């Protein structure tokens, strides 16, 4: 219920960061957007779409770390970024395995089968070019793991800060086209 408000608050802060060319770091751990009439009446879909559009236009570096579950529009609404990294056991998907199982198999109990079909692991996301890298987890030495994450984020921000605002926006836009453009084979078929 409150997640729509948080998306709008996050967008307000991201716009402010962009104005002063301060980097934005987003941490994603959300099961996704709630699919109910109540959420749509509050404008959840519009809030997600607005975040997607506005994050594409930010003039500052944006780095995302998926720390757990990156589910559907809820994750996308804060993950349009110049660099996206995932913890090794994190997942990133357009739909939950349970929701997918319900649609594909008419049985939510087949979520393990759906998860395999969806290819939602950090390794899958790197292989598809969605994620830039995987951060290994070491919860037995949590301070060390946090230090490694801090160094990674700092390095990415430094690398991205060397680019102009226009370069950042264009590269962000181009990277999204990779997922929406037809493949070369599909373009040849349509000729």
If you average the pLDDT, what whole number results? Answer: 86
Order of helices and strands: HEHHEHEEHHHEHHH
Share of β-strand residues = 5-15%
Name the overall outline.
globular
Helix content: 40-55%
Unreliable segments of 5+ consecutive residues? 183-191
- How far the N terminus sits from the C terminus, by CA atoms, comes to 47 Å
Number of helices: 10
Biggest sheet, open or closed, and with what strands and sense? 5 strands, parallel
Structural class: alpha/beta
The gyration radius over C-alpha positions equals 18 Å
Number of strands: 5
Describe the protein's topology.
Layout: H1 3-19, E1 24-30, H2 37-41, H3 44-56, E2 62-71, H4 72-76, E3 83-87, E4 91-93, H5 97-105, H6 111-118, H7 122-127, E5 133-135, H8 142-161, H9 165-180, H10 184-189
Parallel strand pairs: 1-2, 2-3, 2-4, 3-5
Helix pairs in contact: 1-3, 5-6
Detailed description of the structure:
By secondary structure, this protein is of the alpha/beta class. The chain has 10 helices and 5 strands, in the order αβααβαββαααβααα. The chain has helices at 3-19, 37-41, 44-56, 72-76, 97-105, 111-118, 122-127, 142-161, 165-180, 184-189, and strands spanning 24-30, 62-71, 83-87, 91-93, 133-135. Strand 2, helix 4 (72-76) and strand 3 form a beta-alpha-beta unit. 30% of the residues are buried.
């Amino acid at each position: 219920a409150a997640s729509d408000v948080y998306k709008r608050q996050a967008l307000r802060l991201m716009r402010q960061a962009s104005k002063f060319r301060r980097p934005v770091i987003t941490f994603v751990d959300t099961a996704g957007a709630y699919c109910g009439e109540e959420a749509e009446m509050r404008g959840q879909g519009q809030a997600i779409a607005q975040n997607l559009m506005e994050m594409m236009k930010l003039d500052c570096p944006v780095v995302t770390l998926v720390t757990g579950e990156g589910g559907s529009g809820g994750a996308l609404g804060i993950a349009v970024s110049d660099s996206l990294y995932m913890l090794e056991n994190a997942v990133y998907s357009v739909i939950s395995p349970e929701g997918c199982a319900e649609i594909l198999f008419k049985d939510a109990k087949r979520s393990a089968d759906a998860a395999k079909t969806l290819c939602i692991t950090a390794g899958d996301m790197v292989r598809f070019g969605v994620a830039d890298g995987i951060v290994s987890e070491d919860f037995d030495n949590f301070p060390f793991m946090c230090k490694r994450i801090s160094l990674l984020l700092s390095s990415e921000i430094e690398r991205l800060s060397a680019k102009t605002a226009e370069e950042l926006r264009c590269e962000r836009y181009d990277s999204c086209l990779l997922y929406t453009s037809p493949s070369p084979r599909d373009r040849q078929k349509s000729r």
